[in-house]
């Protein structure tokens, strides 16, 4: 930085070389306003005037390079009282050999401003909120872009008002940091303790809130309950997610009735209403996909076909396709609503009894125009990858067909016309074909864990198995859009157990192998895979 002199402001050529040439001991052409030699080298010419130099600055040459002047830094209070001045002065030399100085007031630098909403939180808790906003919210939607509003970030504005919501958000963010650090083999003990402590506080505060629940706060309570499910998904995919889904389902009907009332609807901010819609869609998706692998205790009673399960009863009366379609632009798994509705029906089918209905569901799936559905989604970002979404919808459709064939194997006996295109082998290859069109390092790929698990569990080809396994591992821990949710790790472990069991039965002479879906539904260890 130079201070213009009278000679420099006139057209009189300078009498000395520029500072760059003098420092490098080069012949300067003394061009005005800057040396042409510096310009030709791509350097910024320092000019011909007097240089302003910081005293006690770091040396750039010699033995003291990268070291600061030897005078020790005085404490802040000492600097403030020096020379009986209100503010300390920073001395600037106005020439290389000049004794003249310019004194510039120096003001103490304070810490960064804190959002008033987070003013009462500790620095560690503010770190968790920042992690939630910058990282966790990316995982909660299909494709997070800065030019496209992420509704989940609006929850931060509610944290100062609803303490139970604040605590479950802190717990969710902390457990996300646990899984992220664990996937990279980093220490995570402190974050784990914080996550469990915040979850415990959230339980206690939520129970208190339920005792004084009004219509306007029901959407907030529901959002908090669904975040308990997200906590379980991020942790391992196990835990009490079934109980939380059932509790959330009981709240949905009352929420929809409350929102339909004009007096209540006017008191709910639009951002909260939109977030509630999206969270309701997530909850329904969790319920349907969880029911797909549900064990005997969640299935319907065979003696009473019309008696719904506990979880199914919680979602009775909800228009599933319409609810899911409203959140299609943000849906984590990019699963077409009509297909989820079919999967919900397929999860209640019984082999040997519902073969006709199973064939009808396959016909409905095959008749869907997934491309038209993708291109008709409202609210997508202009930068969204629609063709990737088409491939994802195709993978979900075929994986759902595979699920129906495995759930009701005798459907092929009643529908011979389905054998060629809907055998388990051809369906598995078709799912793998669709998956290959979505790059594993793309943000949308995290929504393909369920179809990848379906195809990977069914295939007997070792190369295809390793491809599915490697894809899930990369999404979990190594892609740029890493999704370190624990349910992915649990799905990987479950996939390997399925292979071990199938291969062992084949080795023992069971040439028919096994129906892994029936075996999985019979186990007590249930993992929510979304």
UniProtKB/TrEMBL annotation:
Domain Zn(2)-C6 fungal-type: 17-45
PROSITE patterns in UniProt: ZN2_CY6_FUNGAL_1 (PS00463), ZN2_CY6_FUNGAL_2 (PS50048)
Compositional bias of kind Basic and acidic residues: 79-89
Record protein name field: Acriflavine sensitivity control protein acr-2
GO terms for MF: DNA-binding transcription factor activity, RNA polymerase II-specific; transcription cis-regulatory region binding; zinc ion binding
Protein origin, superkingdom: Eukaryota
GO BP: any one term: positive regulation of transcription by RNA polymerase II
InterPro entries according to UniProt: Fun_TF, Zn2-C6_fun-type_DNA-bd_sf, Zn2Cys6_DnaBD
SMART domains per the UniProt record, alphabetical: GAL4
Record keyword Nucleus present: yes
Plastid recorded as keyword: no
Localization, UniProt: Nucleus
């Amino acid at each position: 930085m130079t201070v213009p002199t009278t000679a420099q402001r006139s057209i009189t050529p300078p009498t000395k070389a520029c500072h760059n040439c003098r420092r490098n001991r080069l012949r300067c052409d003394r061009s005005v306003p800057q040396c042409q030699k510096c310009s030709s080298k791509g350097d910024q010419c320092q000019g011909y005037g007097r240089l302003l130099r910081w005293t006690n600055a770091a040396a750039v040459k010699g033995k003291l390079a990268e070291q600061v002047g030897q005078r020790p830094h005085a404490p802040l209070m000492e600097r403030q009282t020096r020379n009986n001045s209100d503010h300390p002065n920073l001395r600037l030399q106005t020439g290389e050999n000049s004794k003249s100085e310019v004194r510039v007031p120096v003001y103490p630098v304070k810490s960064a401003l804190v959002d008033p909403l987070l003013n009462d939180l500790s620095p560690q808790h503010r770190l968790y909120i920042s992690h939630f906003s910058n990282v966790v919210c990316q995982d909660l939607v299909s494709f997070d872009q800065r030019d496209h509003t992420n509704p989940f970030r609006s929850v931060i504005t509610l944290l100062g008002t609803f303490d139970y919501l604040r605590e479950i958000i802190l717990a969710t963010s902390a457990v996300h940091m646990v899984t992220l650090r664990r996937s990279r083999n980093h220490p995570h003990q402190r974050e784990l303790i914080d996550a469990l402590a915040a979850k415990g506080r959230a339980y206690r505060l939520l129970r208190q809130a339920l005792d004084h629940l009004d219509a306007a706060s029901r959407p907030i309570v529901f959002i908090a309950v669904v975040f308990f499910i997200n906590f379980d998904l991020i942790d391992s995919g196990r835990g009490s997610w079934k109980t939380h889904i059932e509790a959330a389902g009981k709240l949905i009907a009352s929420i929809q009735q409350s929102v339909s009332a004009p007096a209540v609807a006017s008191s709910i901010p639009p951002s909260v209403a939109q977030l509630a819609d999206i969270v309701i869609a997530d909850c329904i998706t969790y319920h349907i996909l969880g029911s797909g692998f549900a064990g005997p205790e969640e299935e319907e009673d065979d003696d009473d076909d019309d008696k719904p399960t506990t979880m199914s009863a919680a979602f009775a009366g909800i228009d599933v396709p319409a609810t899911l379609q409203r959140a299609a632009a943000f849906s984590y798994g990019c699963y077409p609503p009509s297909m989820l509705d079919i999967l919900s029906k397929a999860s209640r089918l019984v082999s040997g009894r519902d073969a006709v209905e199973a064939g009808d569901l396959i016909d409905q799936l095959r008749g869907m125009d997934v491309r038209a559905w993708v291109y008709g989604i409202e609210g997508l970002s202009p930068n969204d990858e629609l063709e990737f979404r088409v491939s994802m919808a195709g993978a979900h459709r075929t994986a759902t067909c595979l699920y129906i064939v495995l759930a009701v194997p005798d459907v092929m006996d009643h529908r011979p016309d389905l054998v060629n295109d809907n055998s388990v082998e051809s369906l598995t290859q078709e799912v793998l074909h669709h998956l290959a069109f979505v790059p594993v390092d793309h943000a949308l790929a995290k929504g393909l864990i369920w179809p990848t698990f379906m195809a990977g569990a069914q295939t007997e080809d070792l190369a295809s198995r390793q491809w599915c396994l490697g894809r899930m591992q990369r999404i979990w821990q190594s892609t740029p859009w890493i999704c370190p949710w624990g349910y992915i790790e649990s799905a990987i472990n479950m996939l390997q157990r399925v292979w071990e069991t199938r291969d062992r039965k084949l080795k023992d002479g069971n040439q028919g192998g096994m129906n892994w879906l029936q075996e999985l539904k019979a186990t007590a260890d249930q993992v929510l895979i979304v």
